[in-house]
Amino acid sequence: MELGQVLEALPPLTDPNVLVGAGTGDDAAVYRIAPDRALVATVDFFTPIVDDPAAFGAIAAANSLSDVYAMGATPLFALSILAFPRQRLDTGLLGEMVAGGAAKLAEAGVPVVGGHSIDDPEPKFGYAVTGEVHPDRIVTNRGAEPGDLLYLTKPLGSGVVATAIKRGLCPPSLAAAAIAVMSALNREASVAMLKAGRRRRDRRARGALPGGRPRAGGSGRLPRRDPPQPRLPGGGGRLGRAAADRAAAAGRRPDQRRPAGSHPAGRCGRLRVGLPGRGQDRGGDG
Question: What is the pTM (predicted TM-score) of this model?
Answer without folding.
Answer: 0.75
